[in-house]
Structures are given as C-alpha cells and as structure tokens.
User: Which sequence fits this backbone?
C-alpha cells in the first residue's frame, strides 16, 4: 500500500506504508487509511522527527564503532536508506505547510 501525503502548498509525497507507518508513529499520529497533520502541530512533529533522526544516527555510529573495535567486517545493511533520508521529503513538506498554515492529509 502507498501513502499519498497531500497539501495545498506542496507537491504530493508518496511513501510505502511500512515507512509511512514508522514516521507517523514517531510524530504521534496513528497510521491508518486516512489522516491529517494539522499545521499548528507541525512544529512538534518536526521536532520529534529530528530527535528520532539524531537517535538513529547515534545508534548507527555506535554500532559502526563497536564493529570497528572488534575488527569485524561490516555486514551488508538490510536497510541502506537512513531515517534522515526517509523523513526528508515529509520534513520539507511540513516546513512549507507550517509556514503557509496548510494542513497535510492522506487517504482523502
């Protein structure tokens, strides 16, 4: 299933459901067939995403450092796309929508 995030301010953002579910859970919105991110709540949503990105990057750096100390060969990554990369289109959309006071919806 695909999520299509839409607003009157930006182009649509398409995302696979597994990735969209994770991002929606991070920002405190329940994943579902329809929903809305109200522009007044976007500052908090963007803050939560940024915190999750920082935590994800810190964990990745710690894991890499541990493997390097043990002189292990890095294992092929099952998820080569970082949370920062996954969240970037939605973050950009939220920034523009917040500035223009426009909501983001999906499934409508």
Assistant:
């Amino acid at each position: 299933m695909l999520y299509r995030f839409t607003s009157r301010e930006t182009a649509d953002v398409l995302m696979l459901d597994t990735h969209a579910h994770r991002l929606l859970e991070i920002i405190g919105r329940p994943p579902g067939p329809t929903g809305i991110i109200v522009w007044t709540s976007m500052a908090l949503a963007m803050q939560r995403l940024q915190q999750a990105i920082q935590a994800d990057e810190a964990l990745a750096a710690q894991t890499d450092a541990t493997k390097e100390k043990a002189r292990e060969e890095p294992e092929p990554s099952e998820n080569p796309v970082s949370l920062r990369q996954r969240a970037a289109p939605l973050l950009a959309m939220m920034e523009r929508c917040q500035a223009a006071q426009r909501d983001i919806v999906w499934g409508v």
Observations:
- The CA atoms of residues 71 and 100 lie 50 Å apart.
- Strands lie at 2-6, 13-16, 35-37, 104-106.
- The chain has one domain: 2-64+82-106.
- Residues 2-64+82-106 form one domain.
